[in-house]
Amino acid sequence: MIKKYLFLLILYLGNQVYAQQNGFKIPDTLRSKDYDYLFEQIKALEEGSAQQSLYLQSFLHKAKAENNKEEIINGYKNYVHHSPENLKLVYADSMIYTAKKSMDNALIGSAYLTKGIVYYAKKKHNYALDNYLIANSFISKTNDNYLTYKVKYNIAHIKYYLGFYDEAVSLFRECIDYFKEENDIAYLNSLHSLGLCYNRIGNYGLCTQINEKGIQEGKRLATDEMKDYFIHSEGINQYFENNYASAIKKLNYTLPALLKNKDFANEAVAYFYIGKSYWDLNKPLMALPYFIKVDHIFVSKGYIRPDLRENYELLINYYKSKNNPKNQLLYIGKLLRADSILHNNFKYLSGRIHKEYDTKKLLSEKIKIENLLQNRKYNDFIFTGVIALLFFSLLFIAYRHIRNKNIYRQKFEELMKKSEATTKVEVKNRSNGIDEINQDTVASVLKQLEKFEKDKKFLEKELTAAKLTAAFDSNAKYLSKIIYHYRGKKFVDYINDLKVDHLIKLMKEDKMLRNYTNKALAEEVGFSSTQRFATAFYSKTGMPTSYFIEELKKADS
C-alpha cells in the first residue's frame, strides 16, 4: 500500500514537472545560446533563484525541442544537482526513462549511476549500491573509460563504508591513476578517499602524506574545492595520533564549509571527533555539546556509522556517572536504534563491530532503569529490588567467572599440548578460483610465503596485503586466493595468527616477556594497536593474554 502511494506521488510530481516544461517558452535572448553557455549560467547563478530556474528550463526545453536525448538527459541531470531534495529522485527517474528510450548503454548506465549517487548522498547505501551495480552492467558493454572509472570510484566508497578497506584502497588507486589526467575534481576526491582508507586501517603516517599531497595538488590545479575535506581528514587522523589540540583546531576550521555544503555526514563525524578529543583530554563538559550535536544529526537525518556508535556509549557512561537514569535511559534507547540500523546496513560486518554494550545487556539495563524510574518513590520496594538485583548480579558474575576460567583452562591445556605446527595447512575442497591461477605463479608465491614466514617478515608493523603484494611482485587477487587456499585463512587472520604464534613461542622461552604490558607485547610482534593485538590473541587462543601469562607462570613455579 505504501509503495502504491509513493508511486502515485512520484507520478504526480513528474506530471507537474512535465506541465511546467510543456507550457514554457525559451526567451528570445536565449534561443541562439548553445548548451555549454546555458550550463555555465546554471552553475554560476544562485541556488534556487528565479534566474537559475529560467536557465534550467531553457536547457531542458531546447533539448526536448531538438529531440536530443543525450542533452535531455543532461537537462534532467542539471535538475538533479540543482533541485530540492524531495525532487532529486524524480528527475533521476526521468533521466533513466529517457536513457532507456535511447537504447544507448552509456546513457543508461550514466543515468543509473546518477541515481545511485543521489541515494548515496542521502546515506541510503543499499539503494546506492543496487543502482551502481545496474549502471556497471550497462557501462561494461561500452568502451567509455570515464564512466567505467566513475563506477569504480562509487563502488569503492561502498566498500569503504562497509569496512572492506583493502579492496577500497585498490580501487581508489586505480581511480587516481586514471582521473589525474582526465578530471581534476575526481582526482582530488579519489586522493581524499584513499587517505580516509589509510586512516581506517591504522596507517596514520600515510594518511597524513595523502592529505598533504591533496592540498598541494589542489594548489597546482588552482582549485580549493577539496582543501577543507583534506583538512577534515587530517583532523580525524590527528585524533588517532593522540594530538587532540590539533584535531580540535583542524575540525573546527572545516565546519563552516561542511555547513555551507549541507554535508551532514562529515559534520557529524567532525562533531564526534572534536567531542572525543575533549573527552580524552579529561574535559567531559566540553565534549558533551558535541556528542549531543551528533545525536541531533542522527535523529534528524538517520545518519550513523560504526565509529559514531561510541557517541552513545559515552553519553550513557556520562549520565550514569552523574546518577541521571532518565538521560541514561534516553540514550540507551537511541543506541538500540543505532544498533538496529547498523545491523541492517552492515549485515556483512555485524559480527565484526566491537560493541561495549551488546544488545542483550542494553535491553536488560533498559528494563532495570525503567523499573527504577517507575517505582522511584517507593523507597522500600527499590531497596529490596536493588538488594535482589545485586545478589543475582553477583551470582551471575561468579558463575560467569567460574565458567570462563574453566573454558580458558581447557584452551590453555590444548594450546600447551599442541606441537609447534606449521601454518602451511592445505585447505582441500575449497573452491575460490585457485585453479584459474597459473601453477608456476602459485609455486612462486608459495615459495616466497615460506621465506616470508621463515624470516619472520610478518613482524613488520603496518603490514598490509598491498605491501606484501608489492614485495612479492605479485597480483593482490592472486595472493589473497593462494593464502586462503593454502593457509586456510584470510590475509589479516593469516598475519595476526603468525604474530600470535610467534609471541606464544617467545613467552614460553623468555620469562621476561611475561612481565610486559599488552601494549609492549603488541609492539614486540608488530601490531598497530593494543586493541588489535588483544582481539587477535583472543581470537587465536580463546583466552585473554593476562590469563595465558598467569597460567604460564603457574606452570613454571
Automatic annotation (TrEMBL):
Question: What's the name of the protein?
Answer: AraC-type DNA-binding protein
Keywords per UniProt: Coiled coil, DNA-binding, Membrane, Signal, Transmembrane, Transmembrane helix
Signal peptide (from-to)? 1-19
TM spans, by residue? 381-399
GO MF terms held by the record: DNA-binding transcription factor activity; sequence-specific DNA binding
**Domain HTH araC/xylS-type, residue spans:** 459-551
InterPro entries listed in its UniProt record: HTH_AraC, TPR-like_helical_dom_sf, TPR_rpt
Gene3D superfamilies, from UniProt?
Homeodomain-like (1.10.10.60), Tetratricopeptide repeat domain (1.25.40.10)
Record keyword Metal-binding present: no
